[in-house]
Amino acid sequence: MKKGDHLFLVDGSGYIFRAYHALPPLNRKSDGLPVSAVLGFCNMVWKLLRDARDTAVGVTPTHFAVIFDYSSKTFRNEIYPEYKANRSEPPEDLVPQFGLIREATRAFDLPCIETEGFEADDLIATYARLAVEAGGDATIVSSDKDLMQLVGPCVSMYDPMKDREIRVPEVVEKWGVMPEKMIDLQALTGDSIDNVPGVPGIGPKTAAQLLEEYGDLDTLLTRAHEIKQNKRRENLIEFAEKARISRELVRLKTDVPVEIGLDALALDSAANGPKLIGFLKAMEFSTLTRRVGEATGVDPASVEAATVEVQAKAEAHGPDLTVPATGIEEEGAEGEVAPDRMDDADTPQKLAKKLADAAPADPFDHSRYVCIRDLETLNHWVDEARETGLLAIDTETTSLDPMQAELCGFSLATAPNRAAYVPLNHRNGKDDLLGGGLVDGQVKLEEALAVLRPLLQDPSVLKIGQNLKYDWLLLYRHGIEIAPYDDTMLISYVLEAGSQAHGMDALTERWIGHTPLSYKEVTGSGRSKVTFDMVDLERATTYAAEDADVTLRLWKVLKPHLAARGLASVYERLERPMVSVVGRMEHRGITVDRQILSRMSGDFAQTAAAMEEEIYQLAGGRFTIGSPKQLGEILFGRMGLPGGAKTKSGQWSTSAQVLEELAAAGHELPRKIVDWRQVTKLKSTYTDALPGYIHPETGRVHTSYSLASTTTGRLSSSEPNLQNIPVRTVEGRKIRTAFIAPEGRKLISADYSQIELRVLAHVADIPQLKQAFADGLDIHAMTASEMFGVPVEGMPGEVRRRAKAINFGIIYGISAFGLANQLAIPREEAGAYIKRYFERFPGIKDYMERTKAFCREYGYVETVFGRRAHYPEIRSSNPSIRAFNERAAINAPIQGSAADIIRRAMMRMDAALADNGLGDVQMLLQVHDELIFEAPEEAVERAIPVIRTVMEGAAWPARTLSVPLKVDARAADNWEEAH
DNA sequence: GTGGTCTCCTA
DNA sequence: GTAGGAGACCACA
């Protein structure tokens, strides 16, 4: 290569995505193979080769190469394991086109370059440098900002879609910095799509301004303490190291060892017409085939279509754990409103990125918040929401419990900084013992709701909330069913379960770089704490309006990431519908018999008191039995019993397991302690606590389910937790008799039998297990028989028990240590069992290994339905942390798929019951693999088959499991008998 | 009052 | 060995 030569470097990988999203879908006529990106690519390359002079570039290439990414793993992952950890799977109809575009490149007789461990961008940087050093010029065919750092006197970029050349002035205009400063700029802003951390709260505008002022990143970071804005200064100091790492991630390598030299990129003047035509014919691109034929003087009719192999796999595409979650089933909810479209957002990834970048740039202006105190103004806002089609809403109340809370007011937002608070029930300060009077000038609650109701139920206005189940339930109590809606907490949960928090403050910090006013600052804390209705209107407005403002901004930033990461259907089909389904369940509650519990409490108190006397006798004095510290001192100090395990703070453990061992060795006191603990546990946690949760008006207990607090997709229940009501011991089980159906009704309990083992058999594809489930066999006995060669007929209980423990162990990501513990056998023996199990069911070992490998590479694992659970610490250098995360990663697809299945059943249940004339059958509770219903006595027999059908068919049609699901269902007057 | 530790209840 | 929530105690503020 020499002076005057001009090298064209096509960013092949970048082009593929851009073309795919920019061009209308196109399928090969003969077989439907998707080819739109391939056609776009061929047209572009042909144009550049033939008449680049007529384009914005204005020069003819002498050298030409197409560069691709080799794989997702590059040296950047060494610097920062999280790099590109967010990457989503490419769309299904793009996958085959990766290979085809490489084929096309070869058909054009162009060098097709990729190097393991490097991104296309690094190769482009390297070749651009070589070209300039040789005295030539280079044009990079791409519009990716990551490449803009390379722009200079001899290097330009060319956007083929817009036919626009990007030189130094264009970079400066767009980003506010010279191209060489792009590295520092990107280091500051980060990149949420590639997962480059950057510094929170700094977007392109701020970054450019800072670089203008301080010159470069290093200077900026060393002088960060001079910055006036508090948050910005703190962030720059705190995240300085992240910024430096980011710089290394965005800095392109210009010294990649290249096998193909510059000279090999020289264009051959004589295009190989027949070869190219053969390919184009195979693709069935008739227009381009004709053009190429005319230009090369080759008659297309004389050329046979080439044989082109279609690969099913994308480049940089990890092992397939599950089928992609896109596809076949029911349509998304109605009333979906698309987020703002941006002109040059060609892909969901770029749109998501753009919105994330833009978020911190829009400063909060509390002075623009409005306090709405008359119906006319409220009506005006309602009209505004109808126009925008978007409304962020947040309610302010007197309690965290939506079943008890009184509405104090609500806030609305229709655009950033365009937010308002509508006080409804605010009271004057504490000067009056009766709580003071109503603050003047507030819209009446009923009038406000009358205005709001049609809007909140308007199918053309999307309502946005953060933890919307709370507001949904509160408004449901006022006869309003919000729809359609989105929940920013649930969006975040779908995107980042396991790796990040989903609370509003955390989300705001992370995505917007802003700290909202805290609730505490507004209502006070401790003794001086007041309910929200006592807060003066000005402060209340600032706080409440900001919450709505923040929620709207979060939605704008977060929502596009769903599509960008291929998670929209997980959100729409597994997550969002739960808000109203679970909201209804919480609203219904369940009847708990106060008398039964109170009687039990009395009995327990007597029993415990008697036990305490015996314990003091045996211990030779009084002490606090409930204090593990004191108990340990007595048992292992004063009495000199042999201590077993230690707790992590170095204390002797007094766990039930340790005490049981001592009891088995003939010691009386430990036995009594174990019994005492059981009684006091049942009393304090259940019989004493549950009545306190009976709602004063409904007379029922309304638990609260959290939709976003587990990593795997399970729900959790609290206040009270109704997912841990005792069942194992006879004594404990009695507590369930207090959960009853009202007069004339029955409780129905329906639970999945062995759902997790069935999911395991499906995902790990274990023929023996699948067969056993298909045949309806006793799965643990079958396992035992397979492992130990003992016939199922007349099998000793102990043998089956061990197999059962191993089966559970497998689901939990087995370790010899854990199994040994569980079965109270030596670790060697446990290890031998595991080995035997893996030999008998080799697919299990494969499943575990590929799940771990997948998680190590991507940072998450997926359920059968595409839900992701993140385990960033699986790459920890600490072996025990790593092992823990590996076990969790093995468990998550199993536990999570089962959770997805029951969610799907729950979402369909109300409609299925109603369709069968069972509208009076109500789903009340969920306990992971069990659903509890309340039904009129005469409806029970018809309800059970409907419930069973919905639950057993819940995976379909999204997935067809290779094992049947089985549901046992029973009805009774109370939960103990129904279960 | 708040937060950490220990223990124990569930699937 | 997985996933949770809660009560009691206790040291800290």
How is this structure best described in words?
This protein has 979 residues and is of the alpha/beta class. It folds into five domains: 6-171 and 253-301, 5'-nuclease (Rossmann fold); 362-565, Ribonuclease H-like superfamily/Ribonuclease H (Nucleotidyltransferase, domain 5, 2-Layer Sandwich); 591-699, Taq DNA Polymerase, Chain T, domain 4, CATH 1.20.1060; 711-766 and 863-979, Alpha-Beta Plaits (2-Layer Sandwich), CATH 3.30.70; 769-840, no CATH class. 47% of the residues lie in helices and 10% in strands. Helix 17 (468-477) links the parallel strand 11 (462-465) and strand 12. The protein is globular and about 100 Å long. It binds a DNA duplex (11 and 13 nucleotides) through helix 25, helix 27, strand 15, helix 32 and helix 33.
Write a concise synopsis of the structure shown.
The chain folds into 5 domains: 215 residues, Rossmann fold (3-Layer(aba) Sandwich), CATH 3.40.50.1010; 204 residues, Ribonuclease H-like superfamily/Ribonuclease H (Nucleotidyltransferase, domain 5, 2-Layer Sandwich); 109 residues, Taq DNA Polymerase, Chain T, domain 4, CATH 1.20.1060; 173 residues, Alpha-Beta Plaits (2-Layer Sandwich), CATH 3.30.70; 72 residues, no CATH class. 47% of the residues lie in helices and 10% in strands.
Low-confidence stretches: 312-345
Number of strands: 22
Number of domains: 5
First-last Cα distance: 80 Å
How is the main sheet built?
6 strands, mixed
Any idea of the CATH class of the largest domain?
Alpha Beta
Q: Report the C-alpha radius of gyration, rounded.
A: 33 Å
Strand content: 5-15%
Overall pLDDT confidence: 90
CATH architectural label of the largest domain: 3-Layer(aba) Sandwich
CATH superfamily of the largest domain: 5'-nuclease
SS element count, helices: 38
Secondary-structure content class:
alpha/beta
Could you give the order of strands across the largest sheet? 3-2-1-4-5-6
CATH topology type of the largest domain: Rossmann fold
Percent of residues in helices comes to 40-55%
Shape descriptor: globular
